[in-house]
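Running this now, will post back.
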Amino acid sequence: MPDGKKHLRKAMPPAPPVAVPPQRFSRFLQRWLDADPARSALLDDITRLSLAQADLGAALARELEAGLPLPRAMRRVRNLWVCAIIRRDLEGRADLDEVVTAMTRFADFAIQTHLAALTDELIQAHGVPMGEESGRPQQMMVLSMGKGGGGELNVSSDIDLIFVYPEDGETAAGPGQRQLSNHEFFVRLGRRLNAALSEIIEDGFTFRVDMALRPNGNSGPLAASLAMVEEYLIVQGREWERYAWVKARAVTGDPEDIAALDAIVRPFVFRRYLDFGVIDAIRNMHAQIRAEVKRQERLHPERSHNVKLGRGGIREIEFLAQVFQLIRGGRDPALRDRSTRATLRLLGERELLPQDTVERLLAAYTFLRNLEHRLQYLEDAQTHTLPVGEADRQLVAEMMGAPSVATLLARLEEQRTYVAAQFDAIFADKSESPDPDVVLLADDPENRELIAARLVELGYDEPAGAAARLVSTLQGPRLVSLPEASRARLLALADTALGQIATVVREAGVGSHAATLGRLLDFFEAIARRSAYLSLLTEYPHTLERVIRMINASGWAATYLAQHPILLDELLDDRNAGAEDIKQLAASLDAQLCEAAGDTERQLDILRETHHAQLFRLLALDLAGELSVERLADHLSLLADTIVGATIRHAWRTVATRHVEEPRFAVIAYGKLGGKELGYVSDLDVIFLFDDEDDSAPSNYAKLAQRFITWNTAHTAAGILFDVDTALRPDGASGMLVSSVSAFERYQDSSAWLWEHQALTRARFCAGDAAIGARFEAIRERVLRKDRSGREAELKEEIRAMRRRMRDANFNRGELFDLKQDEGGMIDIEFIVQYLVLRHAATYPQLTANAGNIALLRMCGELGLIDAALAAKVADAYRTMRKLQHQVRLQGQDKARVEPALVKAHSDAVTRLWHILLET
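Update: finished.
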């Protein structure tokens, strides 16, 4: 799992130093010093530098050389270590990071040292444990859980451990040795390790050990094989155990075995989807903890002010950090860090929490952990509550830099109040108390008349039809068979949605109640079996309203959201408002794809999720009226370029026979992508060029092109990326999938049809090797600038013939005007522009600029090639028709058709220019 150290560099400053010797505040430290006069010098020596540099091995060796057995020697090192921490902390020379890191270092050291010695002892008696299937020697993995696993151990904390061994088998017993099963060997080893760490002898103990987090808790075996752990987590693993296993860190064991364990644990803890159901699970676990704390406080009022488990305490900050890990860690590996502090900082970087909130939570965490340590410094006791005695409370206040107990309590209350408010913002139950006068769907979901009457009160335009659709959906097989909890959530969401739809339609001034409800019910059916999405809408009620606003505005948006419900995450808050800077997006995408190298399925999903999220953000801006059709197309085209570039780079790395690290390969865009007029569901019209003399280049680049197509068109859990059309390559479907640049040039000069030169007017370099892109552009300009003045009649006839073939293939038998295909429509305008470029670019080379149809029409008017006023009208027609086409498509219609009267003036202008240029 990720190392969070880089997120801990902005360390909180140490607590204020005390003005008197630390032993005045720690009776444990005073007793330790009084027991042996030589200890003072020893303490001076070890505390001169940060404990991060202190040599634990040397300290242990010194005790062993004095003749002490390992358990006693380790306890003496432990006492020295704790006293050193107390001193450096209270003198203001150690910050929280040094304190918890030092304590975790020592715990790891103690476990590793004792385990090595005890393993040798058992091997001497019973032989080496061997894997039944692998035949490999077996080592025990000691997993540090809780704060130890997170590298944030308390000074007087116990340690939560789990013992795992790789596989069953038996020990390879030799002469005089008694053979044991691997299970018995490791259970004995675990029992001895616990005793070595926790038994109280003359020098005290090293650590109290808690094994309650192991599979089946205290009733389970002390040590479990990997197979036992896997079966337990799959069959019996409970929600709270996911929370516990986030922190699991192997302190010992073979790296290969640790990796195998991680592969078992990771899918249990981190789900591949966004798991918002965990909020309710943690809420319930927290409620149980709080109930127990309150019970203890009622029985023992003097034990109030529990800084760990009390309201606004350390545990609530840990829950705040870990809920984001459990929700998002399956999709964002960086969020799998075990450290609470590192995770909080990452939440700020990811904008999952405001930066100010993160800083205040870190300050509260530091304050509470420092206070917790000072409570423990008094007697080296595992306590989290303020002491009963006033004198001890005053000592704690002074250790915290407060002049009085009252001041300390006020500061404590301030921190806890803030933490509690942040905790409640996420974990408070969001369900609203229902209106007692309203009959809820859950009460009588089949009563159409009652539901229709409610819809009448809400002002629905078709209450009877809407009620019928609602009852039909709720009683349909997909929703009736839902688990009880999911069905209850869905009914509550539907109840809420009925009023929100009425509000949205009224405020928007457009849309139909019945149509919007129908779209929402389609969406509910699509996500009903994904309880995480129902949880998201329940936990974040404003997200449901945003969904309703979006689907009221656009039927296509409703369909898209139903196909990709993970995009609900984009509606949670405003952190994703607006399109992401394309350079940042490209860098982030590349980093994610590199991280997933070797897992092609995950890389395909990353590409899709990134594209869908960006497209959805643009859709939100579009529906809000913040983007013109032209600006939207520019954004979508640039996004496609970025996705294409990333696909080429990372697909090439999967070609095992590749002969160079960077492919000399380029993707050339035609059609909508080439003209930067891409829509939400446009195909990619592309060809592939390479410039590489290596013998293996043609076959390797053919593999790359094929993988590019597969990576774009394959259906995964995240959907598809783009449909890809390569029909415009040289010789079309019968031609090679990839062409060398020189072969492409020869084809354009001697074999290409006129319609292929037409297509070239909208072609451009899209992604890949920029040098090839430059060569393509030079070829394109030279071909388009050929003198065709002597073939004007032939040019006109070929363009007319091509247009007739297209119109016959897409004949419109309806009464509505087809914005794209009908006479006077958008394709006529595109053909007019292509004719003007091919006919006049020899004289006016500026016409080969890939500037778009509107700009080129204006340019032709300015050059006097066509009437400037008519050129302006046709440009307006193209702009208007594109906008209308976009609006129709947003409503989910496949064919962009409108009432003829709506565009008659525009289509007449187009037809007039067509006749002037191509029919005379």
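The chain is about 60% helix and 5% strand. More later if anyone needs it.
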